Amino acid sequence: MRITLVHALKHSIVPIEASFMKLWPEARLMNLMDDSLSADLARDGGLSDAMTERFLGLGRYAVGTGSDAILFTCSAFGPCIEAVARAHAPMPVLKPNEAMIEQAAAKGKRIGLLSSFPPTLASMPREFPPSIQIVPKLAEGAMAALDRGDRATHDRLVVEASKELRDCDLIALAQYSMAPAAEQVAAATGRPVLTTPDSAVMKLKEMLGVR
């Protein structure tokens, strides 16, 4: 199976490849990265028709290479990814958080949503079922630390921010780049922690009938 991974942040590549290596090492991965997507979204303050067209172009390219599925790892672009999924149905096209949201909604009613990228907290809560109470929290400065190559500071800021979510049933880490801090967050909060990469790989396997 050939899986195309589409990234808007370079920090997403290592965590999702690690999840595939752990859960589905036989998959053939192709990475596409356009780091101007996140920069342009932050500049524009919202999604546009032009942004959707850019995503449709990425989808067409992935399909043209013979991919069996597409996984987007950029969490603030839900409507754009949905447009790609409609264009290429029934081929599996997953939003980065889709599988984790399903898991979280099945496990708790009050979910702490921890993010390091502000636009995610504007778009992602709407993807949860209305019966779920979302408690959003931004790990301020964490993404900037990662951009500087300072993983230790990123993880420390993520863990510190997570402590305000200790009254939630569980904590969902919104960015793929946050996944390496999951064990530290669990230890600091005493809460179950879900990460997007592991959930996404397991759902893709299920959708493609891989055992």
Short description:
It contains ten helices and eight strands. It is of the alpha/beta class and 211 residues long.
Can you tag this structure with a few keywords?
211 residues; alpha/beta; four-stranded parallel sheet; 10 helices; 8 strands
3D structure, described in words:
The protein is an alpha/beta fold and 211 residues long. Helix 3 packs across helix 4 and helix 5 crosses helix 10 (196-207). The chain is globular. The protein contains 10 helices and 8 strands. Strand 1 (2-7), helix 1 and strand 2 (28-33) form a beta-alpha-beta unit.
Q: List the total number of helices.
A: 10
Written as H for each helix and E for each strand, in order along the chain, the element string is EHEHHEHEHEHEHHEHEH
Residue runs with pLDDT of under 50 for 5 or more positions: none
- Spatial sequence of strands, sheet with the most strands: 2-1-3-4
Radius of gyration: 16 Å
Arithmetic mean pLDDT: 95
Beta-strand fraction estimate: 15-25%
Anisotropy-based shape? globular
Major sheet details: 4 strands, parallel
Distance between the amino and carboxyl termini: 12 Å
Please bin the fraction of helical residues: 40-55%
Strand pairing plus helix content: what structural class?
A: alpha/beta
The total of beta strands comes to: 8
